[in-house]
Write a structure and sequence with these properties.
By secondary structure, the chain is an alpha/beta fold. About 45% of the residues lie in helices and about 15% in strands. It has eleven helices and eight strands. Strands 3-4-2-5-1-6-7-8 form an eight-stranded mixed β-sheet, with helices on both faces. The model has no long low-confidence stretch (mean pLDDT about 90).
C-alpha cells in the first residue's frame, strides 16, 4: 500500500473537500482507495454519503480494541471510508494520548487490514501542527499540502516544508512533497500571480490546480463528490488530472534536497 497524507498549515483551504474528491478521482482512475479521517471534526465521511448521526469511527474502535472494518463504510463511488467517529472530550484526549505514545500505531492498524501492495490510503488531517498530522506524516509515502493561491497560504510554505523535513524526509520510503492549489480563480489578479510564483518555485511538485467551481459546494449539499454530482464540470476534470499526477508522483517523486 501507499499512504498519502493530505495536510495544511491553516484552516479554510478546503483540505477535507480535496481529500474526498481526490480519493474518488483516484478510484475512478482505477485505484483501490481507502479514505481515512484523522480529523476530530469527523467531516470526511459526509462527502461520501455518510450519515451525520453516525458515531462509529477509528477513534472509538481503537479505544475499544475493535476491528476497524466494523467502523468503515463503502461509498457509492467504491471508496472505502474510515470516519474519525464521534467521541466525547475525555475519549478524544485518550485517543490523542495513544497516538503520542504509539508512533507506529497507524502502520500497525493499516497492516491489520491486509491491504494490497497497490492500494492507496488517503489520510485527512486537521489544519496546523497536531499529533494527527504528525501521525500521518510519519507514515506517509507522499505528502500533499493543500493551499489557496493567496498571500496567507504562501506565507505558510516554510512551516509546511519544515514539518515534512522533520517527519518524512529522513525515511527512505518517503517519495516527496506535492502541492495542490485549491479554489483557483483566474479572474483575480492576485490568484494568478501567486499561482505563477508557486509554479516557478515548485514546478512539477504542483500536482493539482483545482479551479473555483460552484459544483463543489453543491455536491457536498447532496453528500456527494463533485465527480458524481457533475462529471463534466471544470473541478471534476481538475481532480481527475490531479489524481493522474499523484499516481505518477508515487513512482517518480524523490525527497527535496
Amino acid at each position: 500500500m501507499k499512504i498519502i497524507a493530505v495536510f495544511s498549515a491553516k484552516g479554510g483551504v478546503g483540505k477535507t473537500t480535496v481529500t474526498a474528491n481526490l480519493s474518488t478521482a483516484l478510484s475512478q482512475e482505477g485505484h483501490k482507495v481507502l479514505a481515512l479521517d484523522l480529523d476530530p471534526q469527523n467531516a470526511l465521511h459526509l462527502h461520501f454519503g455518510g450519515d451525520p448521526q453516525r458515531i462509529e469511527g477509528i477513534s472509538r474502535a481503537t479505544l475499544a480494541g475493535d476491528d476497524w472494518r466494523n467502523a468503515g463504510i463503502l461509498s457509492p463511488a467504491g471508496v472505502a471510508v474510515m470516519p474519525y467517529g464521534a467521541v466525547n472530550e475525555q475519549d478524544r484526549r485518550a485517543f490523542e494520548s495513544l497516538l503520542e505514545n504509539q508512533p507506529g500505531w497507524l502502520l500497525e492498524r493499516l497492516a491489520a487490514l491486509n491491504l494490497g501492495e497497490d492500494d492507496l490510503v488517503v489520510v485527512d488531517t486537521p489544519p496546523g501542527p497536531s499529533v494527527y498530522m504528525q501521525t500521518a506524516l510519519t507514515a506517509a509515502n507522499l505528502a500533499i499540502a493543500v493551499m489557496l493561491p493567496d498571500a496567507a497560504s504562501y506565507a505558510t510554505l516554510p512551516m509546511m516544508e519544515n514539518l515534512v523535513q522533520t517527519y518524512c524526509t529522513p525515511r527512505p520510503d518517503f517519495l516527496g512533497l506535492g502541492f495542490v492549489l485549491n479554489q483557483v480563480d483566474n479572474s483575480r489578479l492576485l490568484a494568478r500571480d501567486v499561482s505563477q510564483v508557486m509554479r516557478t518555485d515548485f514546478g512539477e511538485r504542483i500536482v493539482g490546480s483545482i479551479h473555483h467551481d460552484q459544483s463543489v459546494c453543491e455536491a457536498l449539499a447532496f453528500n456527494q463528490s463533485v465527480l458524481e454530482y457533475d462529471p463534466r464540470c471544470q473541478a471534476t476534470q481538475d481532480y481527475l488530472a490531479c489524481a493522474r499526477s499523484i499516481a505518477e508522483a508515487l513512482t517518480t517523486f524523490r525527497p527535496s534536497p
